[in-house]
Amino acid sequence: xxxxxxxxxxxxxxxxxxxxxxxxxxxxxxxxxxxxxxxxxxxxxxxxxxxxxxxxxxxxxxxxxxxxxxxxxxxxxxxxxxxxxxxxxxxxxxxxx
Length: 97
Known about the structure:
The protein has 97 residues and is an all-alpha fold. It is built from 4 helices and no strands. InterPro entries: BrnA_antitoxin.
């Protein structure tokens, strides 16, 4: 059980029964059947998303102004930086694809 804040108040058994009764009688929120629960799937798995399998982590140091320029372009800056480096490598015939 997670750590609770000091002063957390739990409902009594009677209050819990009344809350459950009210929820069960609400026509707009019928509870799932066992068959429906069996078909429930999480939106995504836990943890870090799987990578493409084509990337490799490396530690590299960039000039501050260059890094700030790419970060300043918003989300996806790392992909744009990768694409710029790839374009340079193609122009200088270091890679073919």
